[in-house]
Amino acid sequence: MPEDQDTRTAPTDEELRTLDAHWRAANYLAAGQIYLLANPLLTEPLRPEHIKPRLLGHWGTSPGLNLVYTHLNRVIRARGLDALCIWGPGHGGPSVLANSWLEGSYGEKYPDVGRDAPGMARLFRQFSFPGGVPSHVAPEVPGSIHEGGELGYSLAHAYGAAFDHPGLLVACVIGDGEAETGPLAASWHSNKFLDPVHDGAVLPILHLNGYKIANPTVLSRLPEAELDALLRGYGHEPVHVAGDDPATVHRAMARALDTALDRIAAAQRAAREDGATERVSWPVIVLRTPKGWTGPAEVDGVPVENTWRSHQVPLPGVRENPEHLHQLEAWLRSYRPEELFDAEGRPVADVLACVPEGARRLGATPYANGGLLVRELPMPDLDDFAVPVDKPGTTLHEPTRVLGDLLRQVMKDTAGRRDFRLVGPDETASNRLQAVYDVSGKAWQAGTLDVDEHLDPHGRVMEILSEHLCQGWLEGYLLTGRHGLFSCYEAFVHIVDSMVNQHIKWLRTSRELPWRAPIASLNYLLTSHVWRQDHNGFSHQDPGFVDHVLNKSPEVVRVYLPPDANTLLSVADHALRSRDYVNVVVAGKQPCFDWLSMDEARVHCARGAGIWEWAGSENGGAPDVVLGCAGDVPTQEVLAAAQLLRRHLPELAVRVVNVVDLTRLLPRGEHPHGMTDFEYDGLFTTDKPVVFAYHGYPWLIHRLAYRRTGHENLHVRGYKESGTTTTPFDMVVRNDLDRYRLVMDVIDRVPGLAVRAAAVRQRMADARTRHHDWIRAHGTDLPEVAEWSWDT
User: Order of strands, edge to edge, in the sheet holding 82-87?
Assistant: First the structure.
């Protein structure tokens, strides 16, 4: 680590005075948002009608966040930095709103909330008020990419934002309650993946104010030496700031930021100019200030400041309690607002002395509005990667391996611009995507051994055995204007359920804000899926992420189940080009039959659902039964069932419908991709039995289609939580998704077949019995299953 370089002189007393003015103004505005409905400048004594009827918001963390924002302004302005700040503490909304209003970025996005008395009144009124803005840092807040309620993800988001942005400083304020979460604890390891040559810098600011809602925080109670040892063990060099005297803390915070930024600049210079390759020990600022600092010291004789009681609203009964009202007025006037704002409510020059200009303001940085920076991804011609299909169901490919060749080209074509990354938890090669290693290794800054493969300090493939970090990194990367793909075992993507919830909510809200430009979609590739986890067993068998996602905002979510390699290519091409969506693609990595040529795959995927005429036996007439399928293994079982029906019941008119885009099953009024009733009835009929083989939990299909005319005729087979370590075909048999059961379902549901085809049904049941005995004797599937192909 290069020696610290004192390239900046300490701020003068005059600069410290203006920094304090800015901080006091921000504190005043933060408290005003929580309490005031009117009288924003206190031009008259406070009365109960000036107070909001419902007091909502969080004061405890606000003074510390205001301190950080104020001092970041100073160094950004002094050093000409491009910077972004991630505000981790849960409900820091009052502070970030206050500071963006002071710097003018808020009024630029919302002209009716200008920097004057009427604008201040609107700023106060709208906070946590019906028709207003939330109490946390949300998409509505300029300069934000991180939802304030997402405790635990701030540092991962910060690193994602810094990757491939070499000129960017990403400050990340970490609340000490947030620091107790598992995702945040893992996020400290992100520094082993940060490339000082091609990436920006992350400056964590661990804010220790001592308390959560009702309890002390773990890190705040550690002795300083023990906390230092922990942070140094994570690979950071701590810089400490502590105190409750504003003048002392201002001076210490200015010194700490200068020290940290000098260290960062020296490390980047050593790597970029001198060719240094040793891993950097990056600085972290440990900031200890009282919770609820500068607020009421006591309320009703009970300590409040520097206790958990200041976490939310320190003075709760202001409208009803005259003493509390008097105490609130004294608190607000202690900031001397008459010195901070002129008669028209505008911030005075001293308050704005530290504020950067233009796009360097934290609330105006384009890095927090990534759609302004995103470029079209160079997508290659799919025909260059397509597998030849002369006849359906006669050749096999591993779909994700084919996709890996496409991703290799995307990675190659973005090598110069560095705006595409592939993330996954130690599964890139396992998921057959290892072709990408031909053009980019795996990001890695820690030690290496001779046996290691594909580790590269400048790599853009990200692997760490934490789905939380993969998700957080990619979200930060996308939200700051880049592209990516998250590859994961299907069963374990559930680990990020709450994270995808928040990202979907973020996207939905952002769509309603005209000033937020669309960003590249969050794309999941879920493979090693339920039907081909027969070797790993029950713990690895869970297709429920699709159910989870489809509960969310329909304008944002998309779910695709491509049945073969060429349809996977088509779906991936669409997903990687798209904006403002969460795309979930479920595809297998094991050898899978090729059903459609590339041209056919494009057309089929554009439809989202369609009849495979070559697979059915309608012969131009109306079907007697519809076999529906969604997913690669269910598609194979449906086609095998159709083949059996053609062989044993040739007079039966069978229609085969394959669904790639699962949201097509929803009504048009419920989802943009949904089918009209006319379209749905045309595919599935209004009065014929429909036997539907689905990749996941069968009741999802019923939920999607419950309002359709023929829903009473719909019978769905899928995964019903029956799994173990067994053979591939036994997995479908155990869940009644196999070809023999599907044929039995058709016989049971087509009128007149129960008696006429009783012998056929018996043969199917016998085949299931033979299967049961065979696998226990031989450990492999029946030859008629293992060697099956589409030969009609």
Answer: 82-87, 168-175, 201-208, 282-288, 236-242
pLDDT recorded at residue 581: 98
Q: What is the pTM of this model?
A: 0.96
Task: Give pairs for 49-54: CB < 8 Å, separation 24+.
Answer: 51/318, 51/319, 51/325, 51/328, 52/129, 53/319, 54/128
* DSSP run (H or E) holding 64: helix 62-79
Do 698 and 716 contact (CB within 8 A), yes or no? Answer: yes
- Burial per residue of 309-334, b for 16 or more beta-carbon CB atoms within 10 angstroms, e otherwise: bbbbbbbeebbebeebbebbbebbee
Angle at which helices 739-749 and 758-778 cross, to 10°: 160
Q: Is 789 helix (H, G, I), strand (E, B) or coil?
A: coil
| Dist CA 748 CA 756 (whole Å) | 11
Reference 765, options 783, 787, 740; nearest CA is: 740
Tell me, letter by letter, the H, E, C secondary structure of 433-481. CHHHHHCCCEECCCCCCCCCCCEECCCCEEECCCHHHHHHHHHHHHHCC
Cα 586 to the center of its chain, rounded Å: 17
C-alpha closest to that of 64 among 358, 283, 310: 310
Cα(283)–Cα(273) distance, rounded to whole angstroms? 20
Please give the structure tokens belonging to residue 50. Answer: 């000036």
User: Could you give the C-alpha distances from 468 to 182, 187, 464, 497, in angstroms and in order?
Assistant: 9, 9, 9, 10
Place of tokens 């049971």: 748
Extract long-range pairs of 717-722: CB within 8 Å, 24+ residues apart.
717/634, 717/691, 717/692, 717/693, 717/741, 717/742, 717/745, 718/543, 718/634, 718/693, 718/694, 719/530, 719/531, 719/541, 719/543, 719/695
Backbone angles phi, psi at 559, to 5 degrees: -130, 125
The tens digit of pLDDT for each residue in 633-668 reads: 999 999 999 999 999 999 999 999 999 999 999 999
Query: What's the pLDDT at 530?
Result: 87
Tokens coding 444: 């890695």
Tell me the three state secondary structure of residue 3.
coil
Q: In 10 A of CB 6, how many CB atoms?
A: 11
Contact call for residues 141 and 100 (beta carbons, < 8 A): yes
As a three-state string, the secondary structure of 302-317 is EECCCCHHHCCCCCCC
What one-character DSSP code corresponds to residue 588? -
